[in-house]
Amino acid sequence: DEVRTKEENEDNSNIIVIPSEKPNDITLTVERKGAEPEVEVTEQVIAPSMGDFDPRLELSHYKFPPIDLLEDHRSTNSEVSEQELIANKNKIIDTLKNYGIQINQIKATIGPTVTLYEIVPAPGVKISKIRNLEDDIALSLAALGIRIIAPIPGKGTIGIEVPNQNPEIVSMRSVISSSKFQEAKFDLPITLGKTIQNEVFVFDLTRSPHLLVAGATGQGKSVGLNAIITSLLYKKHPSELKFVLIDPKKIELSSYSIIEKHFLAKLPDAEDAIITDMQKVKNTLQSLTIEMDNRYDLLKLAGGVRTIKEYNEKFIKRQLNPNKGHRYLPYIVVVIDEFADLILTAGREIEDPIARIAQLARAIGIHLIIATQRPSTNIITGSIKANFPSRIAFRVSSMIDSRTILDSPGANHLIGRGDLLISLGGDLVRIQCAFIDSPEITKLTEFIAAQQSPLTPLYLPEVVNDSDGASLESFDPNKKDELFADAARLIVQNQQGSTSLIQRRFAIGYARAGRIIDQLESVGIVGPYEG
Predict the structure, then answer these.
(1) Quick check: bond before 238 cis, omega within 30?
(2) Second-level CATH architecture of 82-163
(3) Quick check: helix, strand or coil at residue 332?
(4) Closest to 70 (Cα-Cα) out of 197, 204, 170, 202
């Protein structure tokens, strides 16, 4: 008899070789990676630094959320048994044999919800022949969610992903407390869950730089959005990050309204921080394009900087003068839930500003995350796809939908309940999305809301629609704008005046800034325009 061998690797994984019970059969090598231990999260102390500007000092007593706010949802009976592994191995080998395909080697890597069986076919076997047997293997294993990767990139093997009989729930707590996330040095670190290798998956949103999220109803899309937002709330200070939350359904993102002054950005005249009204959505997207242009003007004025990171580093070192309109620029993450409703209602009025922001806003720290449950070509158009190279697909109903999102099949073979494929511009990675429940989000937002906050949320630049503006006949030069005195003081201090300076300094739209310049000219504070 062969002897079962077991060894433990440095990466906390066990390699087990299970001998064959049949003569002349192939042994099964099993890799089972242990769960990452929780890292003790030490409280971050915000201390004043000598000389440099620290944007966090405005809220120097802000406490980052503790891990204890999150629950551990892991179940005890989610182990993949040896019997299950051997049964699946035998069925895979027998199915391939029925079609005349011999294999030389097989290895199983156990993940939270899916086990990857890597096979090495005998010389001369065509890969396409194995790829075409996806449905036959699914039938023999009596399982949904079979996916064949032929070949696995970077390896000389073919992968067959088989769902586990007792899938493990990946809790948000287990990924947030992992060393991989806690020690990540990314500017906007996001953890989505665990890979098939049972490794925590972390990526940097600034490198993505925008995300397209799609999946059928009830497959985990909303939980995925919550995982993204939670990741950022655990790692960023309110001065470093603001969210613009657009929620046509009015219920998916409502839990975050109580952290309005800490982490949200909105229009000056908006009553609610979570944007649900269609006209407000249009105005907000227009406002974001103005903010984008204003930020590019600041980068140009700063000289020698090309990104928000370089600009902020220069500002922190006090090399930029706030009296000339310079300010610390927080990252802005725009989350749009149910993008399809917006497109079907407003069409190009929504699509055009989103495409423009997606094309240009990466360098100045504005990042888009759009989600939809209708991944059809009239919703996810060529313009949207071209500007969203990073995509997340939960389970969809057809191969056509999968191709629309990912440009390849696969999302139609997922098993649901948070099972997803992510493409960050390269190969597809299968991940079990971390689960976070509504009470956990409530505890997290209440912890943040209970702390000292800025006096107001971050106000986006004002948008003045042409229809809202006054006609020439009704223009009253004697009726001064409420920012008139501040603008006059700014121009006298700088000894120069321009519409763009007022736009940047007071974060207002071009039309309003132009009216203020006209009013200043009418009283002689600035001279007439000389082109």
Answers:
(1) no
(2) 2-Layer Sandwich (3.30)
(3) strand
(4) 170
pLDDT in tens, 430-475: 999 999 999 999 999 999 999 999 888 999 998 876 444 444 444 4
Q: Which residues, at least 6 apart from 522, have a Cβ–Cβ distance to it below 8 Å? A: 477
Interatomic CA distance for residues 264 and 273, integer angstroms? 7
3-state secondary structure at position 407: coil
The backbone region for 124, taken as left when phi is positive above 0, alpha when psi lies in -120 to 50, beta otherwise, is left
Q: Residue 51's pLDDT is what?
A: 74
Tokens 């242990």 correspond to: 34
Cα distances (angstroms) measured from residue 131 to each of 106, 146, 284: 16, 11, 47
Least confident of 90-99, 444-453, 478-487: 478-487
Topology of the domain comprising 67-74+169-459:
Rossmann fold (3.40.50)
3-state SS of 280-296 is HHHHHHHHHHHHHHHHH
The owner of tokens 């769902």 is 163
Q: How do residues 271-304 score in pLDDT, each as one tens digit? A: 888 999 888 999 999 999 999 999 999 999 998 8
Give 206-264 pLDDT, tens digit per residue. 999 999 999 998 999 999 999 999 999 999 999 999 999 999 988 889 999 999 999 99
Task: Considering only CA atoms, give the Rg of the chain.
Answer: 27
* 124-130 long-range contacts, CB within 8 A, separation 24+: 125/101, 127/151, 127/158, 129/99, 129/101, 130/96, 130/101, 130/158
The CATH code that applies to domain 471-530 is: 1.10.10.10
In the predicted model, is pLDDT for residue 203 greater than 90?
A: yes
Domain extents for the chain?
67-74+169-459, 82-163, 471-530
Q: Highest-confidence range of 8-22, 253-267, 515-529, by mean pLDDT?
A: 253-267
Distance CA 394, CA 411 (A): 6
Global pTM? 0.83
Unique residue bearing structure tokens 């707590």? 173
CB 312 within 8 A of CB 331: no
Average pLDDT over residues 171-198: 94
Residue 477 scores a pLDDT above 60: no
Are β-strands 13-18 and 158-163 bridged in parallel, bridged antiparallel, or unpaired? unpaired
Q: Is 193 left (phi over 0), alpha (psi -120 to 50) or beta?
A: left
Give the residue among 236, 16, 200, 3 at the shortest CA–CA distance from 111: 200
CA torsion sign for 344, 346, 349, 350 is: negative
- In the numeric block, the tokens 């079907």 are attached to 344
